[in-house]
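Contributing new complexes? Match this layout with oxa(dethia)-CoA.
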Amino acid sequence: MPNMIFSRITGLGYYVPDKIVTNQDLTQMMDTTDEWIQERTGIRERRYFEYGKDTNASMATAASRQALQRAGLQPGDVDVIVYATITPDYFFPGSAFLMQRELGLETIPVFDIRQQCSGFVYALSLADQYIKSGMYKTALVVGSEIQSSWIDKSTAGRSTAVIFGDGAGAAVVQATSDPSRRIISTHLHADGRFAEELYVRDPGSSRPDRPVTQELLDSGGFNVHMNGNAVFKHAIQRFGEVIYEALKANNLTEKDLSLLVPHQANMRISEYVRQQMGLDPEQVINNIQRFGNTTAASIPIALTEAWEDGKLNDGDIICLAAFGSGFTWGSALIQW
Ligand code: UT7
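Output block (do not edit by hand):
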C-alpha cells in the first residue's frame, strides 16, 4: 500500500469526577436496592460531577491533556477536535469550543457531535476519514458526559437514573504510513424510526410556545425517557451485527479478535454479546461496575483502562462497538 495514509491511536486518557455514588447512596434518593441494580445492570457505583469543580469541557480537557502527553504531543500539535457529547455545558455553542479555548487552540476547527452512546465511534470514524484524506494529521477525539444533572433521581426516574454516570475519555489520532498499526475500518448505522424509545424531548424548538415553559417542566419532558426493554432487545442484536460486519469487511472472524471494547450500556448486554461470539471473559472489557454508563465517554474510558492494564499489545485486533439512542450503532476495528 505505497503512499497511503492511515490513522492510528497514539495516546489515550480519561478523567472521572472524584465523587463516588454507590448503589447504597441511590437508595437514599429513590426506591431501589443494591441487589436490583447489580443484578439487572452489573453496576456497583458511578461518579457524579461536583458543581463548581468539574464541567463537561473541563473533564474532556483533563482527559485530552493526558492523552496528548502519552502521545508525546503538545496541545498545539492538534489540527482538529471531534467532541461527542449529549450533555454539553451550553445549549449552544457546543463544549468542543470550550475545550478548544481551555487548551489554548485558537482557530482550529471543532466538531460537536451528538450521536449518544455511539458518539465516540462516530467521532473516531470522522477523525479517521479526515486523516486518511490528508486534510488533517492529528485529531483529538473526545467523549464527555455529565448525565447526573439530567437524570430524575426520584423513584419515578429510577429505571434510567441508576444506570448513568459522569466522565470523559479522549484519544489522540495521528496520521501514519504504517499499515500494520492503524484504524482498519469503521462501520456506522442509524435508525430514526426508534428516536423516541430513548430520548430527552425538551428543550425542543418545535413548540407553539418558548422551548422552556413551566408546563413543559411539569410534564417531565426534560427527563430521560427510555423504553428499557426495547432498547435492550435492539442492542443485543445490533452489537453482534456491527461487530461481525467489521470482521467480515476485513476477511476476519471472531477468532482473530484479541479484545472487544463495548459501550458500557449494561453488563448483561456485554455478557450476552460475549457468549454469542464465544469470547473468553478476559477478551471483553467491562468497567460499568465502577463507572456506570457514561454514554459517549464509556468507550474511551474503557479503552484507556485497557491500555493502562497492558491489555493492548502491538498488532492485536481490537473492536470497539456501540449502540444507543437514535437508534445509532457502530464499530471500529483497530490493529493496535
Ligand atoms: O446506553 C444507551 C443504551 N441503553 C441501554 O442499552 C439500556 C438497555 N436497557 C436496560 O439496560 C434495562 O432495560 C434496564 C436496566 C434499564 C432495566 O432493566 P429491566 O430488566 O429491563 O427492568 P424493567 O424496566 O423491565 O423493570 C422490571 C421491574 C419493574 O417492576 P414490575 O413492573 O416488574 O413490578 C420496575 O418497576 O423492576 C422495577 N424497577 C426497579 N426496581 C428497583 C425498575 N427500575 C428499578 C430500580 N430499582 N432502579
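Reviewers usually confirm one structural detail per submission. For this one: The mean pLDDT is 97.
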